[in-house]
Amino acid sequence: MPGRITLAVAALVAALLFVAAFICARAAHASNCAATSVGFVPLIDLGAGTYHGFPGGLYPGATNVRPPAHDSAGLAIARAIVPLDTLGNPDPANGRIVLISIGMSNATQEFSTFVPLAASDPGRNPRLNVIDCAEGGQATQDIRTAGAPYWDTVAARLRAHGSAPLQAQVAWIKEARRSPTEPFPASADSLTNDLGTIVRILHAKLPNLRIAYLTSRIYAGYATGVSTLNPEPYAYESGFAVRWLIGAQIAGVDSLAFDPAHGPVQSPWLSWGPYLWADGLNPRSDGLVWHCADFVSDGTHPSTSGRTVVADSLLAFFHRESTSMPWFVSHATVSVEEHSTGTGIAVAPNPGLAAIDIAFTPERGSPWRLEILDLGGRRVRALARGAGEAAPLARRWAGRDDAGQTVRAGI
């Protein structure tokens, strides 16, 4: 009997030690929720300011606005996108416009949340198919060669959804280098080079891919001391990598040529998708913040709420981006509806994640009302009404409905 007691006590001690070790292991891998800011300025707010001597903005010239020539080229391409059959031939009756994702774990987690959101969107073009082709564990080092297994996965995903490589016309790309160690700007240069190789592979593998939107990483401050996968400052600096790649195409670099009138095509037309880096709980100019709860325990990958932020932002982006509206949005819908003959409505910022300012001039003597509607045409917020003042007016909407609740993106 004493021996049995000794064994029982020993087993209990071992179990307690196991539980303690398990708790310690979990604690060691918990997000660093104290890292609510790293002090960097988002590219959209940095402007003419600099980071290690490099200016901000999403495009050359420290601006967030696409250069006119590049913008016009993108619009022309977007307007030429039509439904294709699986052999890549135009088929307006039965064909599809296929939008895919390309990238690593964060990309597939976020885009797979976006897919059902887009599928249920009443404003989506009914000829549009949205297919998640990103895959976990596939950093740029894994997919930057044409023979990488990842590209077989992309083709298989397309076929599994009744599509084919010749049917894909638009891609959303979100990628990163695994466990980077180089200092800036070398680390961002390496990512730029990898992304350049990847978009050229995309053109070779998916020859009808006309447009690629790129998004850099979201905040990774909560990974500080927890994960070396892709912590700060690399997540922030990935924005410069995307900026430099797009800037190189704008500058006319031959290896990124997209216009057959200017030489052999090497790449789709490149532009920014939604820029989603914000300094933790420090709000950027449009109000975006990242909470620790928006990430899983490694502080790197998004939780359900983090995935939803990205998915909502993607939906809002595709509805408001001038080069996506021709093919993403149903032709039966419009972004702004004006019932009077007054001056057109101006909205800024567009898109916006927080408060937006709406400026307009009603027609003299004509009653008017200003309402915020969702994509299904349902009223979200009644802002103002009047009897026909012929003077410039402005109203601000703070992103809340009539009940005072914050609304999601896609309004």
UniProtKB/TrEMBL annotation:
Signal peptide: 1-30
Assigned keywords, A-Z: Signal
Highest taxon, organism lineage: Bacteria
Gene3D superfamilies registered for this protein in UniProt: 2.60.40.4070
Protein name in the entry: SGNH/GDSL hydrolase family protein
